[in-house]
Amino acid sequence: QVQLVESGGGLVQPGGSLRLSCAASGFTFSGYLMSWYRQAPGKERELVASITSRGSPNIADSVKGRFSISRDNAKKTVYLQMNSLKPEDTGVYYCRAEPWHWGQGTHVTVSS
After folding, report:
1. CA 88, 11, 97 angle in degrees (round to 5)?
2. What is the pLDDT, as a whole number, of residue 12?
């Protein structure tokens, strides 16, 4: 069955970096637009970044210059590299294969 499994979240200090991974299985990964969303406590879920099947990225203005998205179709994995992390980046990060499939999310906490 379709699975999207996120990993790489955790606790990091402000200014630090994390790389999130999303491993896909059960569908034709290479044909899908892949996205990362996040949801902070008390806020709506927001799109962070997306990447087309050919690897063209789009990054939200709120994280542009700090985050980047990439994919490896051979490994069926999409990545979110997060640098210069701020406390406001704290939240649950979700991987999505647009428009139908969501992962369970991975927690990111940015705190001293």
Report:
1. 70
2. 98
- pLDDT one-digit tens code per residue, 61-104: 999 999 999 999 999 999 999 999 999 999 999 999 999 999 99
Per-residue model confidence (pLDDT) at position 104: 97
In 3D, which of 81, 87, 85, 73 has the Cα closest to residue 27? 73
29-60 as b/e: b if 16+ CB within 10 A = beebebbbbbeeeeeeeeebbbbeeeeeeebe
Question: 3-state secondary structure string, 82-112?
Answer: ECCCCHHHCEEEEEEECCCEECCCEEEEECC
User: Which residue carries 């087309």 as its tokens?
Assistant: 52
For residues 24 and 3, the answer to whether their CB atoms sit within 8 Å is: yes
Residue 78 near residue 22, CB atoms below 8 Å: yes
